[in-house]
């Protein structure tokens, strides 16, 4: 019989009984918010280092990031599904099921990782099949090969972080990722500024930072006696064991893949205004990501809290947590927009500077896109709380619908209209992001209310 520590027992009791919900949300979610902020810094560092090389390099990295996200969606889907089910079993007090879920999840991930490793030699052909411009294929093939290895390592890291998130060890997640960020920062600085390396060295630095987390995190879970550990004896690839996990993860995988594929299509359409527009749009996305990353961290922690309470059958408590999450997310969105009024010029100045000097035209392009994109983050705030609720209630199909609408209804048709039927220039990309983000926030909130009504009726 699987056991849990005294600390895990106390945390479960707090999640299910405390009346101080705001305090609980801050305790669980804010370390994850900082973690997501750090993750966005990773993305910004990649783009910043690439911009030091040249404008073509930054556009290559910006383009490859979306393809990277498509592959990462596999591990992301599994880790999201695993996290939901682990938190649900934890809330129920079914500790044997927690151990079986974790063990089976790791085994399934290992098999998928092996398949991806076998695809690495075919990277140039895969890039061409996805419609990658030939210039990006030539300059980014080796970069993407290294990225694929990093993605495989990060599959296991994502699962480990999902496990720690489920048991409320968000401070552990924060500390580990602070260390990883320092490793990433030092290696990238050495490779780019001292060794004068190209974008391949950016990918290598990321890979080595992922390996650091791998040896500090996932490896520690092997053969432990605790319920939150991996055991080959507890692992199973039978459909009874992995079927519910796969069913729950497939909508998330489709959602993440389609979302990233859609963004890659938007990048292609943005190239109508020139290749540097793709880079400027990527930088704008990274800049807004410092805000939305924090909101994603709140979303991740909120999902765990809602899932545990849902597993314990505490529906009224789920509604209260959702209400407080919505308020917190909106306040963060408002504060972030206000701060960016003062910060967008100095931040964009950094990105527009390279070893060739400061590029005023490139900075103006970044600002032109960003000043419209960030306005959409007001209403997008409602999306993050809504996704927390939907995931916590195991409504991954509804999450998939929200994100498919976000890209294929609210984004691609809009930019297609701007590029085809108007005389707008690069600002069309900013308009598109503002419109799609605003409509997504409204739509996600309506879907969340629908899910609450549906679950409430089912419990009557």
UniProtKB/TrEMBL annotation:
GO CC entries: plasma membrane
UniProt keyword annotation of tRNA processing present: no
Compartment(s): Cell membrane
Source domain of life: Bacteria
Membrane topology: Multi-pass membrane protein
GO molecular function: antiporter activity; xenobiotic transmembrane transporter activity
Entries under InterPro entries matching the protein: MATE_fam, MdtK-like, Membrane_Transporter-Flippase
Protein name listed in UniProt: MATE family efflux transporter
């Amino acid at each position: 019989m699987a056991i849990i520590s005294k600390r895990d027992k106390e945390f479960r009791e707090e999640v299910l009984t405390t009346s101080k919900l705001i305090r609980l949300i801050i305790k669980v979610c804010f370390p994850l918010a900082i973690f997501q902020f750090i993750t966005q810094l990773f993305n910004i560092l990649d783009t910043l280092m690439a911009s030091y090389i040249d404008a073509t390099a930054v556009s290559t990295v910006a383009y490859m990031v979306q393809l990277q996200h498509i592959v990462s969606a596999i591990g992301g889907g599994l880790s999201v599904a695993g996290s939901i089910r682990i938190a649900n079993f934890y809330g129920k007090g079914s500790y044997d099921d927690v151990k079986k879920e974790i063990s089976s999840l790791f085994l399934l991930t290992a098999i998928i990782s092996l398949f991806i490793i076998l695809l690495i030699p075919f990277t140039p052909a895969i890039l061409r099949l996805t419609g990658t411009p030939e210039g990006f294929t030539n300059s980014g093939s080796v970069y993407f090969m290294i990225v694929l290895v990093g993605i495989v390592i990060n599959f296991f890291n994502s699962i480990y972080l999902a496990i720690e998130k489920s048991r409320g060890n968000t401070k552990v997640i924060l500390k580990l990722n602070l260390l990883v960020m320092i490793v990433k920062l030092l290696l990238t600085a050495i490779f780019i500024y001292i060794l004068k390396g190209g974008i391949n060295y950016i990918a290598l630095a990321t890979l080595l930072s992922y390996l650091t987390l791998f040896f500090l995190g996932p490896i520690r879970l092997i053969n432990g006696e605790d319920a939150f550990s991996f055991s080959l004896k507890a692992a199973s690839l039978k459909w009874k064991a992995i079927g519910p996990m796969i069913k729950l993860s497939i909508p998330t995988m489709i959602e993440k893949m389609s979302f990233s594929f859609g963004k890659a299509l938007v990048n292609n359409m943005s190239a109508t205004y020139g290749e540097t527009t793709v880079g400027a749009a990527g930088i704008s996305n990274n800049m807004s990501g410092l805000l939305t990353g924090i909101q994603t961290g709140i979303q991740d922690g909120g999902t765990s809290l809602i899932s545990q309470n849902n597993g314990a059958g505490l529906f009224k408590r789920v509604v209260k947590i959702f209400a407080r999450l919505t308020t917190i997310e909106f306040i963060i969105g408002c504060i972030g927009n206000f701060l960016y009024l003062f910060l967008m010029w100095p931040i964009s100045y950094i990105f527009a500077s390279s070893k060739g000097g400061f590029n005023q035209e490139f900075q103006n392009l970044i600002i032109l896109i960003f000043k419209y994109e960030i306005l959409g983050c007001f209403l997008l705030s409602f999306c993050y709380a809504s996704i927390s609720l939907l995931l916590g209630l195991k409504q991954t199909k509804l999450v998939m619908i929200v994100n498919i609408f976000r890209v294929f209804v609210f984004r691609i048709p809009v930019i297609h209209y701007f590029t085809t039927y108007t005389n707008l220039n690069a600002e069309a990309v900013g308009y598109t992001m503002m419109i799609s983000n605003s409509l997504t926030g409204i739509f996600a909130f309506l879907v969340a209310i629908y899910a609450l009504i549906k679950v409430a009726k089912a419990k009557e």
